[in-house]
Amino acid sequence: MSSQPLLSTSPGKRIALPTRVEPKVFFANERTFLSWLNFAVLLGGLGVGLLNFGRDNVGRLCAALFTSVAMAAMLYALATFHWRARSIRLRGHAGFDDRYGPTVLALALAAAVVVNLILRLTGG
User: Fold this and answer.
1) What are phi and psi of 104, to 5 degrees?
2) What are the Cα distances from residue 4, in Å, to 9, 14, 71?
3) What average pLDDT does the segment 68-72 reach?
4) CA gap 19, 21 in Å, rounded
5) pTM over the 0.90 mark
6) What is the number of other CB atoms lying within 10 angstroms of the CB of residue 39?
7) What is the per-residue pLDDT for 65?
8) CA 59, CA 21: separation in Å to the nearest integer?
9) d(CA 69, CA 80)
10) What pLDDT score was predicted for residue 108?
11) Which end of the chain is more exposed for a tag (fewer CB within 10 A), N or C?
């Protein structure tokens, strides 16, 4: 009986094994992208509703704020989708999460709501 292991490799030599990326990973990326677009379209609809039914400058200002946040959400979703798709294609093993994008968008949305509230309460 030999004392050598069954699969012996020389030091420093690496065995390259192909990694297979399952299709569900690509579909999860697309599903997340569509979810962000759904949020952005709803927010843009709110902005268009404020623009059409707000008869004063406060309504127009808030419509511009909500529409700009919706457009920022769409651009964020597109950039994140392409970044993740490229990482998946290149078989990146790093995390695909983004800690700062959703936080920034949530803060921008909160700021738009607070501006709307303050302008409506003070009579703008």
Assistant:
1) -65, -45
2) 11, 18, 63
3) 95
4) 6
5) no
6) 16
7) 92
8) 48
9) 16
10) 93
11) N
3-state helix, strand, coil in the chain (%, to 5): 70, 0, 30
Residue 72 has pLDDT above 70, yes or no: yes
Average pLDDT score over the chain: 86
**Encoded tokens for 122:** 């003070």
- C-alpha 78/C-alpha 46 separation (Å) is 21
Q: Which residue has the tokens 């998946």?
A: 88
CA separation for the pair 38, 44 (Å, rounded): 10
Which positions ≥6 away from 104 have C-beta within 8 Å?
A: none
State residue 93 phi and psi, 5-degree precision: -100, 5
28 three-state secondary structure: helix
Residue 99 pLDDT > 90: no
